[in-house]
Design goal:
With 304 residues, the chain is mostly helical. It folds into two domains: 202 residues, Fumarate Reductase Cytochrome B subunit (Up-down Bundle); 34 residues, no CATH class. It is 65% helix and 0% strand. The protein contains twelve helices and no strands. The longest helix is centred in the middle third of the chain and has 34 residues. It is elongated and about 75 Å long.
Length: 304
């Protein structure tokens, strides 16, 4: 593939990823206030989360200052994000494939980050032994990520096609997502094994993207891997794989949001605004006509 075409493809697909990712993240962040769960324990409860307690158990809790522990919250997030702690506890059979799948991607993200940093420093004229050593390390690290991700993807495909519980809600898109990622992992490890200086070749591509160097010369093997990786990035924000971003809001604005509603506060204003929305439910016992709002329905007398 001509280097000029590869660079243009990179610009287009990266632009699609950035625009759609930002848009969908903003859309999630602007969703209406959630239905409060008020479930315990919540990791940031200082001195109470370890036994499942809550500040609600305190006598006249509303008169006392709330104490939070960011350390406890960060510890929980670290275990959940890196080691899939909840999956280990509730579905260990799936964890054995899901963990290497996710951890492999984390390793690849780390390797890609190091590669970008090294490339940028090189473009800025920083050349020393540390940068040379970085190129030596990045290749094997990426290979580990490809292998782990590939093992996880194959295992998850097998589980989704054979486990009756998973088959019930496995969609064609879900299977396609795994196949696409497996192709990225497979072409990645093949490129690493087939090319001398895999990291250097990828670094040249990254440098060409930063500098719009259309004179880039890339082997067909690596070009295939890079295009598949870029296609995956552009495709990702359109799918349920955005759960990695949505999960932040699920935890911090739904599961862990235990901030009490205060008169005149931001949350009360949001709730009051939502209560003014008209209801159009078709259930006859609701008696919604598209004009009555939530307050009207909730305060109406029940017909006999």
């Amino acid at each position: 593939m001509p280097g000029s075409l590869l660079v243009v493809i990179a610009y287009i697909l990266l632009a699609v990823f950035l625009v759609v990712f930002v848009y969908r993240t903003y859309s999630i962040a602007k969703l209406p206030v959630h239905l409060r769960w008020e479930l315990a324990p919540i990791p940031h409860e200082k001195g109470k989360s370890h036994y499942g307690g809550s500040y609600f158990e305190e006598f006249e809790w509303w008169t006392k200052p709330r104490e939070k522990s960011l350390v406890n919250e960060a510890t929980y997030m670290f275990q959940e994000i890196l080691f899939l702690k909840s999956l280990w506890e509730h579905n260990r059979k799936l964890w054995w494939f899901s963990f290497p799948f996710h951890f492999g991607m984390y390793v690849l993200i780390a390797a890609g980050g190091l590669l970008v940093i090294g490339t940028v420093l090189s473009l800025l004229g920083v050349t020393d032994s540390a940068l040379a050593g970085l190129g030596v390390v990045v290749g094997p690290v990426a290979a580990v990520g490809f292998v782990l991700g590939g093992i996880g993807a194959i295992g998850l495909l097998f589980k989704r096609m054979t486990d009756a519980r998973l088959k019930a809600f496995t969609t064609p898109m879900g299977l396609f997502n795994l196949v696409l990622l497996l192709a990225v992992f497979a072409t990645g490890i093949y490129s690493f094994l087939a090319l001398d200086g895999f990291a250097d070749n990828v670094s040249e591509f990254v440098g060409a993207v930063f500098t719009a160097n259309t004179a880039l010369a890339t082997s067909g093997v690596l070009a295939t891997h890079l295009v598949l990786a870029l296609v995956f990035m552009a495709y990702l924000p359109f799918t349920q794989m955005m759960h990695f971003m949505a999960k932040y809001f699920t935890y911090h604005q739904v599961r862990w949001n235990d901030t009490p509603l205060q008169v005149g506060g931001k949350m009360e204003q949001e709730v009051q605004k939502l209560l003014q929305q008209p209801m159009t439910w078709s259930a006859p016992h609701i008696n919604a006509d598209g004009k009555k709002n939530w307050v009207d329905i909730a305060t109406a007398e029940v017909g006999k």
